[in-house]
Amino acid sequence: MTAHLIDGNALSKQLRTEVAARAQALKAQGVTPGLAVVLVGDNPASQVYVRNKVKACEDSGLHSVLEKYEATLTEADLLARVEALNKDPSIHGILVQLPLPPHIDAQKVIEAISPAKDVDGFHIASAGALMTGMPGFWPCTPYGCMKMLESIGYDLRGKHAVVIGRSNIVGKPMALMLLQKDATVTVAHSRTQNLKALTLQADVIVAAVGKRNVLTADMVKPGAVVLDVGMNRNDEGKLCGDVDFEGVKQVASHITPVPGGVGPMTITMLLVNTLEAAERASK
Ligand code: NAP
């Protein structure tokens, strides 16, 4: 069997067309959805990420503001900027690009963002909303994974999902989203013993570790759905995921590639959340 590819670029294109149409409808009411992206320092990867996010906004008809600051910006000054953006009616979503320089407490900055504008979904209020099933913003990467499962019409009810990784931005919210859709969820991490015994039972596997070949073909039940969140470099310096793609695609029924899988969906869900924030604010 060769797995069906879940194409993150194609799905993103479709969702971004919908975002553009909804943005247009809001504009007709006099509201342009706006995202503020705040970058502190000159981390090269962060610079690429924020550029991509701003471009994606422009392409979908969303207003975006990129605020760049020197790595020497004080925590107090950053908090003051966040507060000003909280009050700015032209801004519906605020994203502070992580990581922040070590002298700034990232959690403190995230908690300073108004939950109504927390389009990254990292605020403790957003985490609480996800946990309790209340309306809020879902973190973009696991949200994108859920959209990918939805795109193949996958019914999670009663299925066993194994999430590998337990970070606050991917693994844990992923597990909660799968649980909300009635999957039976196992969360694995660096202390998990015999990962293979768990993944072999899984109908759905989400790999969110940041290490190559965490999931190989011998660890996957035939017909399982495999989502690869990982972003790593192979020996040739090319982008690759956590999954041994060539091997696992022979066993799985569906698989996401890297690149072109979860990555583009993450930015797409940021647009969706920003639009949603603007729609909520305009009601
Ligand atoms: P993270 O905070 O470093 O978390 C990694 C998780 O993997 C931790 O929970 C860790 O366990 C677990 N882990 C480490 N080694 C393991 C092993 N051998 N077996 C099982 N679990 C293991 O990373 P993250 O922020 O969640 O990101 C994970 C990956 O996704 C990275 O490659 C990142 O670049 C990528 N990512 C991609 C996107 C995208 O848009 N495509 C977005 C976000 C992240 P402990 O908790 O025990 O340490």
Question: Key features?
Answer:
alpha/beta; 283 residues; binds NADP nicotinamide-adenine-dinucleotide phosphate; six-stranded parallel beta sheet; 2 domains; Rossmann fold; 10 helices
How would you summarize what this structure contains?
By secondary structure, the protein is an alpha/beta fold. It is about 40% helix and about 15% strand. The strands form three sheets. The protein has a six-stranded parallel β-sheet with strand order 1-11-8-7-5-6. The chain has a three-stranded parallel β-sheet with strand order 3-2-4, with helices on both faces. A two-stranded antiparallel sheet has the order 9-10.
Describe this structure in words.
The protein has 283 residues and is an alpha/beta fold. It has 2 domains: 29-134, Rossmann fold; 140-262, Rossmann fold. The protein has helices at residues 8-28, 44-59, 75-87, 106-112, 124-132, 140-151, 171-180, 195-199, 245-248, 262-282, and strands at residues 4-5, 34-40, 63-69, 93-96, 160-164, 184-188, 204-207, 225-228, 232-233, 239-240, 254-255. It has a 6-stranded parallel β-sheet. Helix 6 (140-151) packs across helix 10 (262-282). The chain is globular. The protein starts with a strand and ends with a helix. The model has no long low-confidence stretch (mean pLDDT 97). The structure holds NADP nicotinamide-adenine-dinucleotide phosphate. NADP nicotinamide-adenine-dinucleotide phosphate binds at residues 141, 164-167, 169-171, 188-192, 195, 208-211, 214, 229-232, 262-263, 266.
